[in-house]
Amino acid sequence: MGLLKALAVSSFLFVSSLAASASDWHSRSIYQLVTDRFALTDGSGPACNTEDRKYCGGTYRGIMNHLDYIQNMGFDAIWVSPVVSTFEGSSAYGEGYHGYWPQDLYSLNSHFGTGEDLKALAGALHKRNMYLMVDVVVNHLASKDFPPPFSSFNPFNRESDFHPRCLITDYNNQTQVEQCWLGDDKVALIDVNTEKDEIINTYNNWIKTLVGNYSVDGIRIDTVKHIRKDFWPNFASSSGVYTIGEVLHNETDYVAGYTHVLDAVLDYPTWFPLVAGFQTQFGNLSSLARVITTSQSAYKNGLFGTASFLENHDQPRFPSLTNDTARLRNAITFPFVHDGIPIVYYGQEQGYAGGPDPANREALWFSGYVQDKDLVKHIKTLNGARKAAITANSQFLSTAVRPATGHFPDLLETTLAVSKPPMLALFTNVGSSGTASWKVPKSGHSGNTQLIDVLSCTILTTNSDGGLTTNTTNGLPRVYLPVSALSASNKICINNLSTGNSAPGGAMPSLMLVGLASFVSLLM
Ligand code: ABC
Ligand code: CA
User: Fold this and answer.
1) What is the CA(149)–ligand 2 centre distance, in A?
2) What domains lie within the chain, and their CATH numbers?
3) Taxonomically, which superkingdom (predicted)?
4) What would the DSSP string read from start to end of 381-447?
5) Ligand 1 atom nearest residue 246's Cα
């Protein structure tokens, strides 16, 4: 092999070994943030009224200064809102602080910092073995004026680069969904003509360059169902990294089609019954169980590699729908015991309760980034438990989660048990003052196995058949791991061990003492 060719091959190998693939992402856990609302460079905390829909000052440097906060909760990836320039000035829906109104694909939104700052953020993340996911918008360019000033766009600056104006009015008409314009009369989201070869090539080169320039490890793709499916495979391979698409739709079959053209999708079909299931005590948890099984068979890779979430920047925050803390804990827990990659939307850990856009985009600096807080600890424990499960069972990430009731529940259910060995999770929507019981004929463990609920640090032993029966009077979820999966390094329930205060306000149950004794002996 000639020297030049050898160099070319080795530099290619070098580049490709840096790019994170779908499987590199599977074990990860993602913290989603809106850059403008996360942290300022100088650490100050200015006023930020969400209803004003204005820039509040968050930056990439601000994020860099708070990576400990994110990493301490057990996240090993962040997803940042779109980075390219949006139009300046105020529209009927305010300023482009969220990033979803691109105007110039080749310049960065200077409100968030410089290209050097973004590179520094990627570098700081990589140093911690964390990944950077960037949100990208390719369906439209945006303008606050109509008719749009096409010449102000870059690179598509001719009217003929776009589909003729028509607003999407019928979401069941797929041609309309793909070729008409999202948005409304107030802010035009001008639909790019993604049928033209020249435009397709431009987008493919653009994404390759963006990922390369800023050492991006994965991309979240906006408005995926608004572009024909066969646009996506080349776009995804040009990016060279993990691709996850937003297909905002409640039907598994509809969303499944997109799992064949991208690495993965955001799991919206699960999100709908997740929210409905835990929002009130009348929610139906069997719908949630059903969608898991349906998507496992409909999606290209089952639910592996999809991303599972309770909140995001488009939907009302969960605590705006219910103020019951037990139901909230159940809902927050679900994405962590699911087959996909869990995503937590910034502020969820602080109990933020904003309603629909724009109220759900609160500034995080008002929280003081406090870590000594129940929800923060809850999330940290869930991240830790998932990692402990991955360590305990090398097949954990490729083992499909199953309803553990032994049958597929048909009735309206207020409890749900799911098994993903070595994890067993129990859910209920009865709320903090409700009572419920779980009967699990097959826990996924053999008889007389000690399981520890990582959320309360209490121990339960399976019966001689490996099943279990237990009840609740506080409505909290349980996430069980075998005691043998805990170790000094994963630190789960370790505080309870050292302080011995595991049973709130009461004596430690004898069962607990037995469990702790065997756990302590494990540590020695
Ligand atoms: C602005 C204002 C809002 C105002 C809105 C009309 O205009 O800020 O207050 O209500 C960005 C900004 C937004 C901004 C929009 C429009 O641009 O973030 O603040 O809203 O200017 C992505 C992003 C999102 C982003 C864009 C645009 C796209 O995540 O942040 O928004 O780049 C559609 C798209 C979806 C998109 C979403 C906002 O709109 O498909 O990609 N998200 C139905 C349709 C969905 C549709 C949804 C809109 O309505 O099927 O396609 O999403 O709410 C279920 C049904 C669903 C149904 C839902 C609502 O109900 O099964 O099909 O979804 O039961
Ligand atoms: Ca389109």
Assistant:
1) 19
2) 5-82+108-136+226-398 (3.20.20.80), 402-523 (2.60.40.1180)
3) Eukaryota
4) HHHHHHHHHHHH-TTGGGSPPEETTSS---S--SEEEEEETTEEEEEE-S-TT--EEEEES--SS-T
5) 41
